[in-house]
């Protein structure tokens, strides 16, 4: 049995997935499940922080920008979940102020070099500014004063940075036909993060007609990507109950962004369907974790 990495950034995918599951559950009226997921996510963040302070694994070095990108996205997703639960803007704003600079740094640093053979975790750092773009756009819609002008400009820059670098990067990875171990099959969902997240970002940052058209284009691109990801995750990891790794959690946050993007497009039933998929993926990941670590 392969030894799992210690608590820290490598596991931040679980923070991302749990936080967006909480937000979307609350959005769709699943109050108690949403609050329960929020409680779990709120415990995960300090556990991972303490774990990293203890083990310093991975270090904040160029080859580990993917996990640190997950940290930035996880922090922002948790802040958004707390705002969804309390209607207070402060948690999302604080999380954005922390997650935004980290997202930009890890993205730019990742773009300097990619280590090893092409793989979907390459895109984790590149997607992180898109989460900052969505969160910034949401904040700008609710703020007055100078922030209402400055934040959208920053968020739009993050949108462009992630889109311009992310699309060709994922195209290159798909073209390379990466060999994905079954325990990391959940990472095949990662490219869909930019599909759903950029659709949401477009709706809070751009004119409505353009944003809607953009969302339709992304939805069309997403259909074969969903089929590819589902074949890998369900057909290989779930069907064979593959060895547990942080890669399982790669199946959660992207499914959540698809639900969020569909909601902004006005496709409520589609959004609810993707929320069901997200919760199913979350339950599978949690169950696999429990079985992996039972005594």
UniProtKB/TrEMBL annotation:
<feature type="transmembrane region" description="Helical">
    <location>
        <begin position="182"/>
        <end position="206"/>
    </location>
</feature>
<feature type="transmembrane region" description="Helical">
    <location>
        <begin position="65"/>
        <end position="83"/>
    </location>
</feature>
<keyword id="KW-0472">Membrane</keyword>
<protein>
    <submittedName>
        <fullName>Tellurite resistance protein TehA</fullName>
    </submittedName>
</protein>
<dbReference type="Pfam" id="PF03595">
    <property type="entry name" value="SLAC1"/>
</dbReference>
<feature type="transmembrane region" description="Helical">
    <location>
        <begin position="273"/>
        <end position="291"/>
    </location>
</feature>
<feature type="transmembrane region" description="Helical">
    <location>
        <begin position="121"/>
        <end position="141"/>
    </location>
</feature>
<feature type="transmembrane region" description="Helical">
    <location>
        <begin position="212"/>
        <end position="234"/>
    </location>
</feature>
<dbReference type="InterPro" id="IPR004695">
    <property type="entry name" value="SLAC1/Mae1/Ssu1/TehA"/>
</dbReference>
<dbReference type="GO" id="GO:0055085">
    <property type="term" value="P:transmembrane transport"/>
</dbReference>
<feature type="transmembrane region" description="Helical">
    <location>
        <begin position="147"/>
        <end position="170"/>
    </location>
</feature>
<keyword id="KW-0812">Transmembrane</keyword>
<dbReference type="GO" id="GO:0016020">
    <property type="term" value="C:membrane"/>
</dbReference>
<feature type="transmembrane region" description="Helical">
    <location>
        <begin position="31"/>
        <end position="53"/>
    </location>
</feature>
<feature type="transmembrane region" description="Helical">
    <location>
        <begin position="246"/>
        <end position="267"/>
    </location>
</feature>
<keyword id="KW-1133">Transmembrane helix</keyword>
<feature type="transmembrane region" description="Helical">
    <location>
        <begin position="89"/>
        <end position="109"/>
    </location>
</feature>
<dbReference type="InterPro" id="IPR038665">
    <property type="entry name" value="Voltage-dep_anion_channel_sf"/>
</dbReference>
């Amino acid at each position: 049995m392969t030894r799992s990495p210690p608590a820290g950034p490598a596991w931040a995918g679980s923070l991302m997935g749990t936080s967006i599951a909480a937000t979307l559950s609350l959005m769709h009226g699943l109050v108690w499940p949403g609050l329960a997921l929020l409680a779990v996510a709120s415990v995960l963040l300090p556990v991972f922080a303490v774990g990293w302070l203890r083990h310093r694994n991975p270090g904040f070095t160029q080859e580990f920008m993917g996990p640190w990108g997950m940290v930035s996205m996880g922090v922002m997703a948790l802040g958004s979940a707390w705002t969804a639960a309390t209607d207070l803007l402060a948690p999302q704003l604080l999380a954005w102020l922390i997650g935004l600079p980290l997202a930009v740094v890890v993205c730019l640093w990742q773009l300097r070099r990619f280590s090893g053979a092409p793989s979907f975790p390459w895109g984790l750092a590149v997607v992180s500014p898109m989460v900052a773009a969505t969160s910034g756009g949401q904040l700008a819609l609710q703020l007055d004063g100078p922030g209402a002008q400055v934040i959208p400009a920053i968020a739009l820059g993050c949108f462009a940075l992630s889109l311009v670098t992310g699309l060709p990067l994922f195209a290159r990875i798909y073209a390379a036909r990466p060999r994905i171990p079954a325990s990391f099959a959940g990472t095949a969902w990662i490219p869909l993060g930019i599909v759903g997240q950029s659709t949401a970002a477009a709706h809070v940052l751009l004119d409505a007609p353009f944003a809607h058209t953009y969302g339709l284009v992304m939805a069309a691109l997403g259909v074969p990507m969903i089929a590819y990801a589902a074949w890998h995750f369900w057909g290989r990891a779930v069907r064979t109950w593959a060895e547990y790794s942080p890669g399982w959690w790669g199946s959660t946050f992207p499914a959540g962004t698809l639900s969020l993007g569909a909601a902004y497009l006005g496709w409520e039933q589609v959004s609810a369907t993707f929320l069901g998929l997200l919760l199913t993926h979350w339950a599978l990941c949690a169950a696999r974790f429990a079985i992996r670590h039972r005594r």
